[in-house]
């Protein structure tokens, strides 16, 4: 259809019937006609039309008359779908868009354009083809362009995270901002999304926010001596969700760090460092560390010196200030430990010190000095470690630094990783390192990375993720460093024992009442705690810094308020702030009440103190007691409760000291009770509680299970296949002290072809082993604290690999799952490895293992739960592997894997007790007081279910038991022996001893396990015990044996008076049943009767006299009661007999005979007289209606029935009416007297 009406004009000259010619590059300028040419243009779907005409290519639509170029040409759409969206100017040929093209119609429009002279008759026309391509908004045709507001930025060295970089040195300079422009963005289009790709030396310290500002993203931004202190940040912008994905040209910005002369003192990154030295080396590097100063280069000059060395090691160590390395300059002895104090001093003579713990171990293979230099651990700050180059196992092509909060929800998108110049449909993304606990997830198709679990900065603050990007047979790696910002998610925890109670006196000598101690796991200001009272108190206040409660006024009033209850709030400085409340009870003692009665010293309040573990013996706290009257007096402090082998209190000063170094792994809190000798009362003020909290430090190095690992693999194993998993354990109790990380050192070839997961210790193949020509690799796995272990990996050739029907491997018990067991060697069915499907067919009924297809495409076996060798020592797993083939078929093969479970020290020793010689896990023994020294009195025995050295047991006595000082024990056999004759102790100590024995195993790995048993020892005197030796029986004889019984609770030998319950028939029968041996027979059991004394009688004891008097009194009362009961019973019987006689002869009314005519007789009535002797007289004139079961019924002959009667003393008579029905029509004639008598009978019946 036509959308423009063209006017017809008259030609100014003679016109031949010639069609116009389009101006197009394909047409010759001198050609007479040009028709059927092609024009193209593009528009965007869902984008409002522009006000200007569309840009037509290759040239704007123009046509001319060859004979008269000045003649105007009219244009129009000839046909096509165009009327709704497009229009053409009839005079100029410009095409414009009229409406928005929706996404549903996003297609190409094909329109035929007709050109016609303005004077033509309609036959002289030319046609051209216009193609309008509608583009999706995500279709990218131009590369984005990155622009920076300046190519140089400036920031101070002390700037905090989030500080924006400036374009000038002055603080008022404009901020450095990065922007992106794109020619694909048309007016009215929605904003596009771009991802910044950062490279260069500044990537570990700077980042770009969503507004494009460059900001500081690290804490360790410091000016370094001898360096330029400038960082290059290369910025590229990459499109997101466009096809194809385009990336801008890089722009490099140099950021200069400005030194700040704040004259801050030097400081070390940690208060303590740990290093491991090898015995026997003449010189070796131990650890590299240095102090940091925030001053400029001129003021940051430091000098170092070793202040002190323990164990007489002053001449064994030296600090190299040029390399900042601690050196051992002389051979060291294996097993020695040294404690060094290193000081850093600046130009203002300010010092910073740190402690270095050096442990000397015996090296399996002594490394050379050159190797030791390469293995020197770096102990610089955490931010500087992030700047180090990636591991050689994964040559990363890009590094990304992002920071997220730890309270981010699981499933949140944190970044999108996209490969350049790679088809999206053929690109795969996956984690290869750093995501062992599955904290993050990545979409393998588009590279979007999400959080999969809730983050916890206190558990792990930084994640180093290695992502493999594979496309079209090519592979590259990208490193993503995720820093977790601390959020205030932990409330303070009160360390004082609940309930908290302090005691103060009315008159104050000191204003200190007590102290509240709290701790917080968060970092920075989130972990800084301040204290306050919930409600203001006019008597007490709390120090906001240290939690000390003090009194405001010097005198309190006990009469008006004997106690005060305060609510103390411990609050951190986070946003939002978290707090913990605790109630404190303060008791006020009366200093004036009974001053003469209170003469003993008392304590005021309790104490709490924190001590670092492994600290040498030292004074930790001083407790104070005072007399309530304020006068001076003797005070002797004693430790009433607590381990006296660990703590002591000075009797004079009250200073509590540690006797040995305390270990937080063994016990992290102790509660002591300190009192005085002058106040032995049970009043709470007579003692004070002292809580000693042991702070854990990183003092335990991880320990490998074995000294070396070895395995054999095939050269056909693809990269990613698991080889072996090493495991080490750390005995520290708190993170991050007990977190173990692994890395490969030593053999460069092993580091190129293998990698180790830093968290799990799993060693995998990093590169293909085909064609290497190396038969054996030796990798040194180093733990986070410096010790190492060797792993020998032997390569088999392609031809030597065969599908063995049985494979053998081992795994340790009690290892946390999932733990790698082995990779099954396989032969490829073709020229290339194909992914296989693996499953366990049999042999794992308990579900202890699982098999999966590893990243290398092979079957890998790993544990699903902890194994227990004592329950199952080996497994025979049948593994089935199948490879899908064409046409839905599959090729499968099976093998058997024999897994031996190796023993670990997971079972404590168990004492063996004889049923006849032990009660409640206690050994009983009797020793003669005249027994000589080293006499064996008891043999204890313990067993261990573990194997090898783990089951070797040594015995010892618990030295904390006072009675153990009189005995000794053989550490190998368990024989308990006396140290002296016990007769010497008869006057000073009771004849009874109670102590404990310990059985300790000897593990090859880990800490030893200990069990304890009680020993109760009785001392016999005067030779009253005798031994009876029986030779071989030659004739029948009778022997009397004396049995000794022991009390189960007091563990003492029972006296004769306590043995009566033992002489029962059941006890004798049980002993007879035990005498099954034909060599002897138990005849009977009799109680030993003491021989009668020559003096008849004895004086009664007080208790016996009291029992006799009480018995006589009870007997008298009983006889009196019986007499009273008999008297009243006889009196009642006489009274009842007299009442029965009166009732029998004085109650019955007289009855006169009545004459009735024969015609008036209807039935026969009999009169009965019946006595009721048992009814009381009071009830006779108050009759009650009888129940049916309590009456007799008298009917006619043959109709007399007896109802159930429960009273035998009284029977009621019921005379029923006649048996026939009484008619209303026939009324018999009766005499008046008869009627009267019948009425009398009816009334009597009703009464009865």
Automatic annotation (TrEMBL):
Record-linked PANTHER family: CADHERIN-RELATED FAMILY MEMBER 2, FAT ATYPICAL CADHERIN-RELATED
Segments for region (Disordered): 372-392
Residues in Cadherin domain copies: 147-268, 286-379, 396-494, 496-603, 603-704, 705-911, 919-1028
Domain of life: Eukaryota
MF (Gene Ontology): calcium ion binding
Biased amino acid composition, Polar residues: 376-392
PROSITE patterns, per the entry: CADHERIN_1, CADHERIN_2
Record's keyword annotation contains Protease: no
Protein name: Protocadherin-15
Taxonomy of the source species: Eukaryota, Metazoa, Ecdysozoa, Nematoda, Enoplea
UniProt-listed Pfam families: Cadherin
Gene Ontology biological process terms, A to Z: homophilic cell adhesion via plasma membrane adhesion molecules
């Amino acid at each position: 259809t036509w959308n423009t009406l063209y006017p017809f004009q008259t030609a100014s000259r003679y016109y031949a019937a010639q069609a116009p010619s389009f101006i197009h590059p394909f047409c010759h300028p001198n050609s007479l006609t040009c028709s059927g040419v092609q024009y193209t243009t593009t528009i965007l779907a869902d984008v409002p039309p522009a006000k200007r005409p569309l840009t037509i290519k290759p040239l704007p639509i123009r046509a001319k008359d060859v004979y008269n170029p000045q003649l105007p040409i009219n244009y129009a759409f000839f046909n096509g779908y165009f009327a709704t969206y497009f229009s053409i100017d009839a005079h100029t040929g410009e095409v414009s868009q009229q409406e928005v093209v929706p996404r549903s119609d996003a297609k190409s429009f094909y329109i035929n354009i007709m050109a016609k002279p303005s004077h033509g008759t309609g036959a002289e026309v030319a046609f051209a083809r216009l193609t309008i391509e509608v583009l999706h908004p995500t279709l990218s045709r131009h590369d984005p362009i990155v622009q920076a507001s300046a190519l140089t930025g400036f920031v101070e060295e002390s700037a905090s995270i989030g500080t924006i970089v400036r374009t000038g040195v002055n603080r008022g300079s404009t901020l450095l901002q990065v922007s992106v422009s794109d020619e694909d963005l048309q007016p009215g289009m929605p904003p596009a999304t771009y991802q910044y790709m950062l490279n260069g030396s500044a990537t570990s310290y700077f980042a770009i926010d969503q507004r494009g500002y460059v900001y500081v993203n690290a804490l360790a931004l410091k000016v370094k001596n001898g360096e330029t202190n400038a960082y290059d940040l290369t910025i590229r912008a990459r499109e997101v969700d466009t096809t194809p994905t385009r990336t801008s040209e890089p722009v490099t910005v140099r950021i200069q760090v400005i030194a700040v002369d704040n004259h801050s003192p030097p400081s070390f990154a940690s208060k303590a460092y740990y290093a491991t030295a090898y015995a026997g080396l003449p010189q070796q590097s131990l650890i590299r560390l240095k102090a940091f100063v925030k001053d400029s280069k001129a003021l940051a000059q430091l000098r170092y010196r070793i202040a002190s060395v323990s164990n007489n090691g002053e001449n064994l160590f030296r600090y190299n200030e040029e390399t900042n390395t601690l050196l051992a300059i002389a051979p060291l002895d294996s097993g020695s430990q040294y404690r060094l104090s290193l000081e850093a001093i600046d130009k203002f003579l300010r010092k910073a010190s740190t402690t270095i713990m050096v442990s000397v171990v015996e090296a399996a293979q002594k490394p050379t000095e050159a190797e030791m230099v390469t293995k020197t651990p770096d102990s610089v700050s955490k931010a500087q470690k992030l700047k180090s180059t990636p591991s050689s196992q994964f040559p990363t092509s890009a590094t990304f630094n992002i920071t997220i909060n730890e309270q981010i929800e699981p499933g949140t998108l944190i970044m999108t990783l996209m490969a350049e110049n790679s088809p999206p449909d053929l690109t795969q993304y996956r984690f290869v390192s750093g995501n062992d606990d599955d904290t993050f997830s990545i979409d393998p198709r588009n590279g979007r990375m999400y959080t999969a679990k809730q983050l916890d900065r206190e558990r792990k603050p930084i994640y180093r993720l290695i992502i493999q990007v594979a496309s079209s047979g090519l592979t590259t790696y990208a490193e993503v460093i995720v820093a977790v910002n601390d959020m205030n998610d932990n409330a303070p925890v009160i360390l004082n024992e609940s309930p908290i109670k302090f005691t103060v006196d009315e008159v104050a000598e000191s204003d200190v009442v007590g102290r509240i101690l709290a701790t917080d796991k968060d970092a920075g200001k989130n972990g800084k705690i301040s204290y306050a009272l919930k409600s203001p108190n006019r008597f007490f206040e709390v120090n906001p810094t240290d939690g000390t409660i003090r009194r405001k006024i010097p005198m309190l009033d006990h009469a008006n308020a004997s106690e005060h209850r305060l609510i103390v709030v411990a609050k951190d400085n986070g946003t939002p702030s978290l707090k913990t409340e605790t109630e404190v009870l303060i008791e006020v003692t009366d200093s004036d009440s009974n001053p003469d009665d209170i003469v003993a010293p008392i304590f005021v309040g309790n104490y709490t103190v924190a001590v670092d573990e492994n600290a040498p013996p030292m004074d930790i706290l001083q407790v104070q007691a005072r007399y309530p009257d304020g006068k001076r007096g003797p005070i002797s402090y004693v430790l009433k409760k607590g381990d006296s082998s660990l703590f002591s209190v000075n009797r004079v000063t009250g200073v509590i000291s540690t006797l040995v170094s305390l270990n937080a792994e063994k016990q992290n809190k102790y509660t002591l009770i300190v009192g005085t000798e002058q106040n032995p009362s049970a009043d709470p003020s007579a003692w004070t509680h002292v809580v000693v909290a042991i702070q854990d430090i990183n003092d335990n190095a991880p320990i490998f299970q074995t000294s070396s690992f070895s395995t054999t693999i095939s050269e056909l194993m693809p990269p990613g296949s698991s080889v072996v998993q090493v495991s080490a354990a750390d005995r520290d109790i708190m993170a991050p002290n007990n977190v173990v990380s692994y890395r490969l050192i030593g053999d460069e070839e092993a580091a190129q072809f293998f990698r180790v997961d830093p968290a799990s210790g799993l060693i995998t193949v990093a590169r293909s082993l085909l064609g290497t020509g190396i038969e054996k690799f030796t990798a040194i796995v180093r733990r986070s604290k410096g010790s190492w272990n060797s792993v020998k990996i032997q390569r088999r050739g392609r031809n030597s690999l065969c599908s063995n029907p049985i494979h053998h491997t081992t795994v340790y018990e009690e290892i946390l799952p999932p733990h790698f067991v082995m990779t099954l060697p396989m032969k490829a069915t073709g020229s290339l490895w194909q992914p296989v499907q693996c499953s366990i067919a049999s042999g794992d009924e308990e579900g202890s293992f699982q098999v999966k297809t590893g990243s290398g495409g092979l079957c890998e076996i790993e544990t699903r739960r902890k194994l227990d060798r004592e329950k199952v020592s080996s497994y025979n797993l049948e593994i089935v592997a199948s490879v899908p083939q064409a046409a839905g078929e599959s090729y499968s093969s099976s093998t058997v894997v024999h897994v031996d479970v190796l023993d670990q020290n997971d079972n404590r020793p168990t004492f063996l007790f004889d049923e006849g010689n032990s009660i409640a896990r206690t050994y009983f023994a009797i020793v003669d007081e005249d027994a000589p020294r080293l006499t064996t009195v008891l043999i204890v025995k313990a067993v261990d279910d573990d194997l090898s050295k783990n089951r070797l047991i040594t015995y010892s006595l618990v030295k904390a038991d006072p009675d153990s000082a009189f005995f000794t024990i053989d550490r190998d056999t368990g024989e308990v022996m006396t140290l002296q004759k016990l007769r010497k102790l008869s006057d000073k100590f009771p004849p009874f001893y109670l102590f404990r024995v310990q059985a300790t195993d000897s593990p090859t790995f880990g800490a030893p396990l200990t069990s304890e048993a009680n020993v109760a020892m009785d001392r016999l005197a005067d030779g009253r015990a005798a031994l009876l030796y029986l030779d071989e029986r030659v004739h029948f004889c009778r022997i009397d044996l004396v049995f000794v019984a022991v009390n189960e609770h007091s563990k003492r030998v029972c006296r004769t008076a306590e043995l009566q319950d033992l002489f029962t028939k059941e006890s004798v029968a049980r002993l007879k049943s035990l005498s099954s041996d034909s060599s002897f027979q138990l005849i009977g059991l009799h109680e030993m009767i003491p021989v009668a004394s020559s003096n008849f009688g004895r004086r009664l004891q007080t208790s016996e006299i009291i029992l006799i008097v009480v018995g006589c009194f009870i007997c008298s009362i009983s006889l009196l009661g019986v007499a009273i009961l008999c008297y009243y019973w006889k009196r009642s019987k006489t009274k009842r007999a007299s009442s029965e006689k009166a009732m029998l002869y004085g109650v019955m009314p007289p009855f006169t005979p009545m004459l009735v005519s024969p015609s008036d007789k209807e039935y026969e009535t009999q009169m009965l007289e019946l006595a009721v002797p048992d009814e009381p007289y009071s009830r006779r004139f108050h009759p009650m209606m009888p129940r049916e079961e309590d009456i007799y019924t008298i009917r006619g002959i043959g109709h007399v029935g007896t109802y159930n009667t429960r009273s035998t003393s009284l029977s009621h008579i019921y005379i029923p009416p006649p048996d026939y029905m009484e008619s209303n029509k026939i009324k018999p004639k009766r005499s008046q007297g008869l009627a009267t008598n019948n009425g009398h009978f009816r009334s009597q019946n009703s009464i009865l």
